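The protein record now logged underneath.
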Amino acid sequence: MILLLYTGNTTSPGTYSSGAGKEVQGEVHELPLKKFKVLPNPSLLKLTEGISEEVFIGLSNDHKIFVGLIKIIITGKVEDRWTSMKIGPIVTSRFTTTQARCLRRWLSEEAPSFELQRVVHYLVYVWAEVFLMAKHRNTYTEAPRLLLLEVMLTKMRCSNPEKALLKSSLTTNGQMAHHESILISMLASPHYEERRQAVDTIFRIRAEGPRGWGRQGIRPYKVTKTINISSFCV
């Protein structure tokens, strides 16, 4: 979603009209490297270095390039195999290649445009961490934690216009914030305190009995209509 704010309107399924989208068209992997700005992110570095062989093999080619370029940007250590690898064509319905292209363009800019700065900032400090965490913890029980991570990083790292745009995509995943999903996640937690709290909560709800939730006392599953980013504490 963040790319929609900084890449301009699409002029065809494979091009953008302005902004960062126009900057990353063409053979970006052939651009000469320059003294780019390093964006340190220790928690993301730990995730990139901890990717198992099984997980890495399962990534698409452009996602492998994405991970390689991310690591260069957060460490400043260039690896030629990632900077020279051809990235797939732009497809506006699928942002994977555009993300990788933005990172590669960053390596060839000493004074990147505002639009490119904001896109790469989002990729390094929000999206990449959530994406890699999802690859590390690819189970339904982790979904509430991943949504919480995305909301918290968005609140800390994004501007108000970016938050307003991202709110709709966060709300799409709002069902992961449902209390039943959270309880399932807590029951599967490796931490005893969280499992204990989930069990105590379930027993308390059972003891209270039906509260007009529907026929036969069954509570309807209502999807969260909106995620209130400002309500989360950082």
Summary: The CA atoms of residues 54 and 136 lie 10 Å apart. Residues 141-234 form one domain.
